[in-house]
Amino acid sequence: MGCLFALFAGIFPRLAVFILWVARPERVDAAFSTFLWPLLGIIFLPFATLIYLLLYTPGRGLSGWDWFWVVLAALLDIGHWGPAPPSGTRSRAGAPRRRERDLARTAL
Fold this sequence. Notes:
By secondary structure, the chain is mainly alpha-helical. Helices cover 75% and strands 0% of the residues. The protein has helices spanning 2-11, 13-23, 25-31, 36-44, 46-55, 65-79, 89-107. α1 (2-11) crosses α2.
């Protein structure tokens, strides 16, 4: 069941945070002082919120490498906000014509 949740969380982090919130509300309450932060986390940084909830230890919080994973997850979340790189279909469409033209020149 744990592997299924890990696969599910990687694909749908918003739903995983929501399920974790419903199944174990005491864990979310221990990690956050109000319901507003996890709600904003589900909306804007779902993967970072999920990692924060999974790594949070009541009474200790996060320390050391735990913060590294949360920041890495936040960077992955923010990376989805940016524009996609250009597909380059325009240059690929002209490439066969150039090859044909170059072959025609060498044949002359």
